[in-house]
């Protein structure tokens, strides 16, 4: 492979190439440190033309391309595959953070066009400087990139109101397996001229091409914001609360997050953030509202909706309504630090599941009952975007057991129980984290045979050499 790397150096001026073992090892270790792999080199293009040239040379030499944005994924999709036949195949890891050729805004069309290497936070800030909003919001927004958001079809806390990344993208440009620039950045909201390849690339986890640029939707920035923290009896009460609020304040409702008592107790153990005082052992709900109207009008409207909610409703036990942005951020810190608190606490079995909102309580109760019936003792750390049906159903070892040993002994059984329960409720085993290399076998097992054959056929048609991210998403 020395000849291949020399070819890159000579043939692609300006391409940054790193072959030192330490930076390669760092780049090839995923965020959860579940996969530690390697590559021939880390390559960092600055332009789409460099990506085109790189992909052509990789195709000529049979070198696979693993594309990585901020490396914040949770399923091993942004590092070379760790096992199977593709693990021995030579890879380059293509980091996109230097792809920053384009950052423009069309105010009249409410669109922003940006290169894949910009972080989500940078895009949010650029839109905000023009009085506009790009509503995608994730805990990792300071690190994750636009290209990664598109490749993984990222969700986040505002899907309830604005949709996930797929719904926010009007067009994208990508480099295909032949090293050709493809796509459409015109920012059209109506365009019925053939297959819309954009939707194949979004959520494809880097297996069909390298996304280099995208045209995304913007919205008028809200003039007011209000956040409420509710103590509720259980997840059933949380769903009922969501239904009530949607009936009364549908257009103002931005986020609706549910957390069980264990999740919030864990955050307060490891971080200084404190939740509003409420009954012991109750569940928590964080609700955000926003409006183009005044702060006072929004606050009064929300206060009325929540007062009506509590009237004669014993399942809602306490409501705290923020008065300013500082208080709102303090409440959001409780929700956003759950994952970090879990990491501090130790290993756990993670599940990113979703089903119709109406069936979330059914799934919750069935899964926990099945775990108990199996004789497994766990600490459920449960939270998520209840407003769009997505829960992070994470299970930790009891405090008196070694977490690593617990996972080795019981992870497979717990996965089977949770996945069976969510599928029985008309749900999915991957709501927003994707498939990567973690769930590729599971995807094959739960997908109808004709559908899975279509997946394989699409991959073969668009990437006949299996150049892009081999060993990810598909099991074969």
TrEMBL record:
Could you tell me the keywords of this UniProt record? FAD, Flavoprotein
Q: Which residues form the FAD-binding PCMH-type domain?
A: 35-221
One family from Pfam that matches here is FAD-oxidase_C
Q: Fetch the InterPro entries from UniProt.
A: FAD-bd_oxidored_4_C, FAD-bd_PCMH, FAD-bd_PCMH-like_sf, FAD-bd_PCMH_sub1, FAD-bd_PCMH_sub2, FAD-linked_Oxase-like_C, FAD-oxidored/transferase_4, Oxid_FAD_bind_N
Q: Does the keyword Magnesium apply?
A: no
SUPFAM superfamilies in the cross-refs: FAD-binding/transporter-associated domain-like, FAD-linked oxidases, C-terminal domain
The record's annotation in Gene3D superfamilies points to: 3.30.465.10, 3.30.70.2190, 3.30.70.2740, Uridine Diphospho-n-acetylenolpyruvylglucosamine Reductase, domain 2, Vanillyl-alcohol Oxidase, Chain A, domain 4
Looking at the keywords, is Cell wall biogenesis/degradation present?
no
Question: Member of which family?
Answer: Belongs to the FAD-binding oxidoreductase/transferase type 4 family.
- Tell me the protein's name: FAD-binding oxidoreductase
